[in-house]
Amino acid sequence: MCMAEGKGDVSFAKHTTVEEVLSKYPGKYGTTSDYEYLCKDGTRKDIGKHEECFLGFNAAHAVVTREGNKDIDNIVTILTTMSSMYGPSQTNWTKFQLFNSTKYGGANLLFKDSTTELVSISKDNRTYQGFLGDDYVKDVQALKSCDDASSSCDDASSTKQPTSVSTKTTPYAVIVLLVAMVAVMSL
């Protein structure tokens, strides 16, 4: 971690990053008390208090299918059922565990091991714009305007201003639509 090595004072990272790195490299980068969140109101909060203090939201991870896939509803049903059956409530180590790769000698094999649940995207939001939200899409367009040769980011009047942070979030869920997982149901 750059901050622990003295190469920076601020890092933009997911709320899970500090704890993941510290548990992977015990003692190498300090403890959670060595880090804190910077809040929009200028205050600071301890690691773990991300629901009270954050600078913005990022869209949850998603797995998508091709446009017009007629099997989406079946895929969603299979995956959300698997999440219920083999997710965090599955504590029997002799049975399949969807979000725990250590049993299989790896990490993040099918999904990130920090995944807590697979949830369905509403039919109205099954486009990238619907999923990400208007504010997120506008913010990306504003950032991309700096790469546009016809605009200058030094001239504030010619640069699109980012929108306010979107309140549309799913920070603890992974949204999925994945055909290959059907084979796991036979286990």
Automatic annotation (TrEMBL):
Residues in Transferrin-like domain copies: 1-145
InterPro entries: Transferrin-like_dom
Pfam families registered for this protein in UniProt: Transferrin
Name of the protein in its database record: Transferrin-like domain-containing protein
Organism: Porites evermanni
